[in-house]
UniProtKB/TrEMBL annotation:
Coiled coil: none annotated. InterPro entries: HTH-type_Bedaq_tolerance, HTH_MarR-typ, WH-like_DNA-bd_sf, WH_DNA-bd_sf. Pfam families: MarR. One of its GO terms (molecular function) is DNA-binding transcription factor activity. This is MarR family transcriptional regulator.
């Protein structure tokens, strides 16, 4: 699902670029993309900049799966924060968000 999530976040991408971004061999990415394509989660289209290449894009069904999973994850996180942390602890966690965002930008 990380490939599908990446396509949803970052937009269309060539299989080779996806393999590089996910740190997998191109053959492994080809298998992953074929499985996603068979399930109707991604479409393959010619690259507008270079018609010899293809780019992968998430389908509406693929986007729906990703958004449903994100929604469920957000709900679980909110519940865990509400039930497992005091208001003061939640404020402390909120205070570190900018630092975590900076860290994520450097990765």
């Amino acid at each position: 699902m990380s490939v599908l999530s990446r396509l949803d976040r970052e937009g269309p991408a060539a299989p080779g670029a996806l393999a590089d971004a996910e740190a997998v061999r191109p053959q492994a990415m080809a298998s992953t993309l074929a499985a996603l394509e068979q399930r109707g989660m991604v479409d393959r289209a010619p690259d507008a900049a270079d018609g010899r290449r293809v780019v992968m894009t998430p389908t509406e069904a693929g986007r729906a799966v990703i958004h449903d999973r994100r929604s469920a994850s957000v709900q679980r996180l909110a519940l865990a924060l509400e039930e497992g942390f005091t208001a003061a602890e939640r404020r402390e966690l909120l205070a570190v968000v900018p630092l975590l965002e900076r860290l994520a930008e450097q990765l």
